[in-house]
Amino acid sequence: MPPAATVTDRAAVVVDRATAALTRLRRARLLHPAGRSFAGEVTVWGVPGPPTGVPLLDDPAHFRATVRLSKGVPTPGGWPDVLGLAVRLHRDPDRPFDLLVSSSGAAPVLRNLPLPRRRFSGTYSTIMSFRAGRRRLFLAALADPESPDLGRSLAEVAAAARAAAPRLVLAVASAVGPWRPFGQVGIGDQLGAREDAELAFDPIGNLPPGLRAAGPLAWLREHTYPASQRVRGARVQSGGSMGVTV
């Protein structure tokens, strides 16, 4: 029987090649190709109750951000789809933090499952778990009851951003505990189509100190995202104040 490392290496090659081939066939992002990107800002209040041990979640701060809302398949118009939210916190001059969350349920049994829905306002969770020391954590973006609704289509999302300043609440939870709000993300002016196409996230490498990705989905993302980005000529921003994308 071949060593586990050899099997893992071979699996990585297969995933890399399959991702590259499918990206070439689609001529766009393999995952969530249809989306709208916006300038934004993130305000961190800090986690209520016991700290997580991750300074970015525990300590009050304010960041420039880039926000992307997207449809996974994508289905037409306002049809149900696995919706996506990507938030890049620009932590100049440090490495940015890329938070990627998908439409899901809020309850513990549903927060690690992607769930199709129609409306862009709702619960988004990381699906993939993180480790902070010995703790297992999930991150989420939750609907803000005082925010304008984001609608059922990407066109309605863009219209909401033009008319007002939509917001989502950022929260953290254990695998079974309640969500603990620690901040909010505000959605501002829409970016151009070229900026949206060039934007590339790294949900594995662009993590803050004290937080690391865990589980099989982390391994899968580690291999699919770089392969898809390589084929479409996008490069991930890894640090510094070089704007939205590099």
Description:
By secondary structure, the protein is α+β, with helices and mostly antiparallel strands. The chain has a single domain, classed as Catalase HpII,  Chain A, domain 1 (Beta Barrel). The protein has helices at 4-26, 55-58, 154-163, 193-198, 216-231; strands at 34-44, 61-71, 83-90, 97-103, 124-125, 130-132, 135-143, 167-173, 180-190, 212-213. Strands 1-2-3-4-5-7-8-9 form an eight-stranded antiparallel β-barrel. A hairpin with a 6-residue loop joins strand 3 and strand 4 (97-103). Helix 1 (4-26) packs across helix 5.
Summarize the structure.
By secondary structure, the protein is an alpha+beta fold. It contains five helices and ten strands. Strand 8 and strand 9 (180-190) form a beta hairpin.
Main attributes of the structure:
246 residues; alpha+beta; Catalase HpII,  Chain A, domain 1; eight-stranded antiparallel barrel; 5 helices; 10 strands; disordered C terminus; Catalase_sf; Phosphodiesterase
Percent helix range? 10-25%
Q: What is the CATH topology assignment?
A: Catalase HpII,  Chain A, domain 1
Structural class: alpha+beta
Number of strands: 10
Give the biggest sheet.
Answer: 8 strands, antiparallel, barrel
Averaged pLDDT, please?
82
Q: What separation lies between the terminal Cα atoms? A: 43 Å
Name the CATH superfamily assignment: Catalase core domain
Q: Return the CATH class.
A: Mainly Beta
Q: How many domains, as an integer?
A: 1
Question: What is the second-level CATH architecture?
Answer: Beta Barrel
Neighbour order of strands in the largest sheet? 1-2-3-4-5-7-8-9
| Shape call | globular
Our Rg estimate from Cα atoms comes to 17 Å
Give start-end ranges of low-pLDDT stretches: 11-28, 239-246
